[in-house]
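Tutorial handout. Part one gives the primary structure; part two gives the three-dimensional structure as tokens.
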Amino acid sequence: MLFVPGDRPERFAKAIGSGADAVILDLEDSVTPAQRPAARKAIAEFLLKGDRPVPAWVRTNPVQSDEALLDLVAVIQGRPDGVILPKARSGADVLQLDYWLQALEATYGIDSGSIRLIPMVTETAGALLQMASFVPTSARVLAMTWGAEDLATELGAGGNRDADGTYAAPYQLASSLCLYTAAAAGVSAIDTVDTEIKDLAAVERRARASRRAGYTAKLAIHPAQIPALHAAFTPSESEVEHAERVLAAFAQAPASGAFMVDGKLVDRPHVLQAERVIAAARRR
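Part two.
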């Protein structure tokens, strides 16, 4: 999912055609308060054109701000595919946005629940102490994601990564909590942005680690990152072939608790993993 600043409408079409699986038209961190009225207008005009080849989401401002409802009212008639909620402090913020979306969908004749929602659940220290409140969640929540930049600012940190680009311990905890909470809520987990845009091999390496950890996708801040992210999240031929062998073995003996594949013992969790690999390969 590729971010594009909402006050740069000349970049919208390029973002849509970048190869990203979705774009996020941003009204929060990448747009100054003075530019937000113009950004809202630009996003609304773009969304009203319709005929989008990939989903177009909007990142609003946090629900506790005076800007969030203005953001929603401005863009709702363009029927964005979803809304990214930043700095969610607890599940109550998710429910508040869900309530606003229900009201606006009813007002403008939009199918109830059709505008999806992805909350960013770790951008404040307080949210990390309220993770259980995000479960259960609204039916419109498609996934959960997390953020390290705002969290580092709140913690007063000088940085959030070690010299090799690995997240420091406080941010690894935030990432892990996002994974746990999304799994408990029964939704996907989407990894946060990588701020590197030159060393694309490092971007791909870190994205592969994200996928191994359980993330199903990743946020991007620059079109140059997209090929690396696709490479990382697309199962390899060998992964697909192994998954197919696991599923074939299970199909031959569905009552078996465990069986041998490629010289290794596999059981029901491996079958579920194989199904996810095949599903991911089909999406590409």
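Part three, for discussion. The chain has two domains: 2-233, 237-283. The chain has a mean pLDDT of 93.
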